[in-house]
């Protein structure tokens, strides 16, 4: 068929391959010969569908695909979350879909019914009331539970402490189950930044300091979110790959090491750091992730959103990444507001689109300038076309053109017994036993009384990226101990005292705490950090962790350390539990507590899990995904430091035990961490025999197998995380002193081997 209209009348329609045009401008959504347009045919290949749809789109329609819209544009999402009025703003809907209809932010708390109504209205409008009928991505957060009142799992740093790919995959798959039913098809997780700069507030969102662990767990998370097919969507004869939900690897790249510890600050490094440290987790986890989000920061002097080397040369050309990349909220504006590499919004939009990323909300919508820039000949439309193709590929891969709607039975997938079981496992496996002097733990269920003390003892503390009252769905430690003890028919008495607040220097509660300890057989003191309160949005800034909550000190805030010291002074065995989103630097506690447990911000069953660990109903198996410094001034303390970065005897031998040697020491403090990456104790003991390496000599690019027999030589069942580290003994450039290259978590009954 030939194109039947004169080109001059249709300046906004692309003029490529005129010969093959199957449609007229007046009737872009149908074919002249009456056949089904390829883009609407589920049996056609994804590439053919993209190729068929793109030329039918006007410039304005293409640009609207690239800008993130907001469900609040037609639904009153910011009102009382419990209000269930099912009505929408018609002109708001029409305007939103005309300008920003490609992807829709929906991460608000509404009743499920209202949310489903809003998604249904939006998608039905796009499918039935717009010319081409292109469905939207519907987006929410989901680092550890999606933020429209889904089940909340342990924070990512806690999930990482499980060192268990299966745990991470299983919780991601539940996040996906719960979100999918409501019509969400795009989750902004996982975060693959590395926790090497501990002052940064977002450490809790990461899988720790190591790029290998991060890559493995990131891959597990992406698979859990994406694997599967949406309902009523079939693969099609040549339809190819399908996914049920888009994950988002973020923040691409090197975001987690801001030079001042302050969020968004520039990151210092070169091509070697980029390739050996920051890129590997993304290359491992994200090549099949349907989207990525760029970082706010500049790396090596180039703002990442306009870094051609990173976004075009490496991501697109070297890795062949073919899905959607979006900028983080408001970040396009930073080119002229923070980085000053552009003078105007137009320049910011152009530099970003030329590196193939979309624009999120939270800024001034600089991409609305793109149509005029194209018409003025300042921007080549090919960049817009290429970027739209990446987004359409995601939509076709999800099967959204076949089924963009929420499921009528969505309630069946939320908070099921299966999610509760996975939650319970994740909460247990993420607890790390750091210190256990004289086998203080586990406590016997026959013990007469325990003192449960501290500001975290009757408090649910989730990490950042939860909304409005999410903590009401969690159990506090006090609640968990009570439930555990009553379920165990134990007569152990609990003497509870708050002792002090998390944030205050007020010691007036100490007497009550000391009395509780004195009248008990053992004292458990629960202290730590607390996270940005999303309910208060940006006003909850007296938190000590979370996005935009960076700190200059890693010690305990307020009277908390003094509370531990007062309790310990009673002479009662004192167990300290840190509930926190990052390492706490308190050498006194390391040196004096009888036992120390790290519970990174847990999920909804965290309060029960800590009781089960302390009483030995579960044998702790977590390992640290991040090292604990003695003092903020000794950071960074990540374990895979470059050779020469820690104390050395003579030249060449590194001492990792804190021995004071000449040079490579701080005058009054040791650079050796309190507890290092990979550390974590158990109530049983393991030994290793029959180590083999195959092949026994490893070349630079060889893969290899390590086998070892692990024996549980203690008297209780346990899980061990077998960790394999490698070092390049002599190398032409300075390399890491050691590097994790493999790990496997195994369950071994007492007296058995694996
Ligand atoms: C949040 O919790 C408070 C206190 O429990 C309650 O008054 C309020 O209605 C809750 N808000 C929502 C949106 O659930
Ligand atoms: C509906 O949306 C339009 C367009 O965004 C806006 O101007 C108007 O104020 C909205 N109406 C209500 C009642 O919110
Ligand atoms: C959130 O979920 C909890 C637990 O299922 C429920 O009690 C609460 O009403 C829900 N909140 C909203 C706003 O739907
Ligand atoms: C979609 O179009 C139908 C038929 O013209 C109309 O009745 C309906 O109100 C429209 N829906 C929206 C949300 O605009
Ligand atoms: C991409 O980013 C670079 C900076 O690395 C910027 O100078 C350029 O304008 C952008 N566009 C293209 C096509 O490279
Ligand atoms: C799938 O298709 C069936 C039959 O057409 C329909 O009844 C059902 O509602 C659809 N399911 C979803 C989730 O759209
Ligand atoms: C109660 O204890 C039993 C037996 O130890 C255990 O199977 C069950 O999961 C426990 N329930 C709770 C809620 O802790
Ligand atoms: C923040 O501090 C104020 C007192 O300065 C206190 O009232 C408030 O509860 C604190 N918020 C949190 C989340 O701890
Ligand atoms: C620490 O390591 C150094 C060098 O390996 C060794 O000489 C010293 O004995 C060690 N000290 C302790 C307390 O283990
Ligand atoms: C490890 O434990 C096994 C099983 O108890 C025992 O046979 C072996 O001798 C132990 N090996 C070492 C090196 O301790
Ligand atoms: C490692 O073991 C796997 C599974 O047994 C095998 O397929 C692979 O060839 C082995 N690789 C090497 C380098 O020996």
From TrEMBL:
Annotated InterPro entries: Cellulose_Degrad_GH3, Fn3-like, GH, Glyco_hydro_3_C, Glyco_hydro_3_C_sf, Glyco_hydro_3_N, Glyco_hydro_3_N_sf, Ig-like_fold
One Pfam family, short name: Glyco_hydro_3
The keyword Amino-acid biosynthesis appears for this protein: no
Residue ranges of domain Fibronectin type III-like in the record: 720-753
One of the protein's GO biological processes: glucan catabolic process
Keywords: Glycosidase, Hydrolase, Signal
Domain Glycoside hydrolase family 3 C-terminal: 431-683
The keyword Flavoprotein appears for this protein: no
Protein's name according to its UniProt entry: Glycoside hydrolase family 3 protein
Domain Glycoside hydrolase family 3 N-terminal: 58-394
Similarity comment: family membership: Belongs to the glycosyl hydrolase 3 family.
GO MF, one example: beta-glucosidase activity
Residues of the signal peptide: 1-15
Domain of life: Eukaryota
